[in-house]
Amino acid sequence: MNIPNRITLIRLLLIPFIVFFYLATFIPFAKLIACILFLLAVLTDFFDGYLARKLNQVSVLGTFLDAIADKVLVLSAFLLVVADGVVLAPFGAISFIIIIFREFSISAFRQLCATKNVVLPADMWGKIKANFQFFTVLFFMLVSFFLSIENFSSKVLCVFNLISYILLFATVIITIISLVHYLIKNREVFKS
Known about the structure:
Elements: H1 3-23, H2 30-54, H3 60-83, H4 91-115, H5 124-148, H6 154-185, H7 188-191
């Protein structure tokens, strides 16, 4: 297995630890550890792609693993903050459903394209969407950590909460745009 694929595998292996520490309320600063692990996992997403291109080690396995790792990382962490009530109802559930709908729709669309020997590469909107999802989840995880600290500054918490909801709104809009863009850009697949 080449180096970029190993880095992607590290991202997948970090996910259970992120979930564990986020839920481990009996460990001091566990949510902060979960935030740090999530940030490390996000950074591996940048490094694996960069190294794959730089070392000319782009592979079908790497492309597949990278897409799976991104989806599982974001959806797992987003589910944690929604289930924890950090994202107020109904915004969390609605946002999560939109995000998961987009991910499953594009995955199904990629499978349809593969049956017609068409490769559906990642594009700019997909990358923007992924980055917004990463930052949104990270901010909500930080809000969750701040909420777990007794007597934490309400002003700082309010600022982080506001940023989180602005990011969430932007993420949902960009997620929808990304889905529509993929479908319109590759509409010829539906013709045959």
